[in-house]
Amino acid sequence: VPKAVPEEIKKKLNATIVEAVFSPEINKRLVDEFLAFARGDAQEETGLVDPADLVAQMVAKTARSGLALSLGPCKGQGQVRIRPQAVARALDNLIGNALRYGTQARLSFALTERSLRFVVEDNGPGIPAARREEAMRPFTRLDAARDPNHGGGVGLGLSIAADIARSHGGALRLGQSGDLGGLMAELVLAR
After folding, report:
1. Torsion angle, CA of 67/70/71/72, rounded to 10 degrees?
2. N or C: which end of the chain has fewer CB within 10 A?
3. Please, are residues 87 and 168 in contact by the beta-carbon 8 Å criterion?
4. More confident: 121 or 159
5. Who's near 46: CB < 8 A, 6+ residues apart?
6. How far apart are CA 124 and CA 176, in angstroms?
7. pTM for the model
8. Are 54 and 156 in contact (CB under 8 A)?
9. Strand 80-82 vs strand 47-49: parallel, antiparallel, or unpaired?
10. What is the three-class DSSP state of 20?
11. Contacts 24+ apart (CB under 8 A), 11-18
């Protein structure tokens, strides 16, 4: 049964649609991101994945794009049952944000008996503590200067990552990177 769409999200969606009508470049991205958000990757089957392999794939994929993503500490060994494409999408969103707003980004993970925690950190401006929850709402862009026509998103990346974390019994937590000084995004998945 579909839920009613809150008025705030309707207004943001309408504004984003107007932008898309006048910008063919973001039209495809808007549709792709919205469909991924609406679909929630719920149809994907789970599979056993080694987090070290997934992290290595993400670093290699980013390098092929000509961007630098360093590998941080990777703790724990084994496999975990996840929806791999969904988790990769969440990590893509977090890494994309890190490299869009910072000049350095780092990906690490920790696998424990109870959880798998991916951490993406950057040296960008970060997100003020008071606005972190707001940043994870659908169609939210915190800075008007983050124009979707010039590399900015449509405001779904963090909400998609948070939704994917919740669908794995976990959460997306935003904080400040102690090492790099920018945003630290922790994608925590329950085991």
Report:
1. -140
2. N
3. yes
4. 121
5. 81, 82, 83
6. 10
7. 0.78
8. no
9. antiparallel
10. helix
11. 12/138, 12/139, 12/140, 12/155, 13/139, 16/139, 16/148, 16/154, 16/155
- Nearest alpha carbon to residue 74 among 59, 61, 89, 63: 59
Residue 1 has a pLDDT of 39
> From CA 44, how far away is CA 40, in angstroms rounded?
9
Q: 89: which 2 tokens?
A: 């999408």
Q: Could you count the other beta carbons within 10 Å of the beta carbon of residue 21?
A: 11
Closest CA to 90 of 44, 123, 144: 44
What span, in angstroms and rounded, lies between the C-alpha atoms of 92 and 76? Answer: 22
HSE at residue 104, side-chain half, CA atoms within 13 A, is 10
Task: Find, among 93, 85, 87, 94, the residue nearest to 111 by Cα.
Answer: 87
Joined tokens for residue 176: 């400040």
In sequence order, the 6+-apart residues with CB closer than 8 A to the CB of 32 are none
Which residue in 130, 119, 121 sits closest to 55, CA to CA? 119
Q: For residues 166 and 177, what is the distance between their CA atoms, to the nearest angstrom?
A: 22
